[in-house]
Amino acid sequence: MGNEFAQGQEWSHERSLDWHLLEIDYHKAQQTLSKDLNHLYKNEPSLQFDHSYQGFEWISYDDNANSILVFARKAKDCDEHVIAVINFTPTPHANYRIGVPKAGHYEIVLDTDEVNYTGSGYAKIKTYQTQAIVSHGREQSIELQVPPLAGVLLKWLDKP
């Protein structure tokens, strides 16, 4: 209760939520992010197949030098997928290469560092084309801008 707008106090059944916090940009932005995440989860098939290991695939779990995790979420019974790139440090990465499951175009569908979420707006490129460069044991990869302290979701759009 209250997490959807970053309420600082623990919820108590004895009082109302701190709705007045929505007058502050940061709290309003957190509410917007929660709304956008819920909308994306509801409408993205690759995020709905979460009751099986087949809906998840690690891409990179061992980049401890940069504190970045990369994984794919896959839809049931089709090729649709999204890739999550999560940066746990305040250091942005301008040219971070990740292996991807399929050749084609990838588009950012969510970037928690966007200005409307009170982020820095670091990543300016929103669409990436795969390259035939091996990375993370995959034949195709993309080189993307990874914002600081943020999560980015990229959706596979089509074949090249």
UniProtKB/TrEMBL annotation:
It holds the Pfam family Alpha-amylase_C. The keyword Protease does not apply. The keyword Transferase does not apply. InterPro entries: A-amylase/branching_C, GH, Glyco_hydro_b. Keywords: Carbohydrate metabolism. Residues 58-155 form the Alpha-amylase/branching enzyme C-terminal all beta domain. This is Alpha amylase C-terminal domain-containing protein.
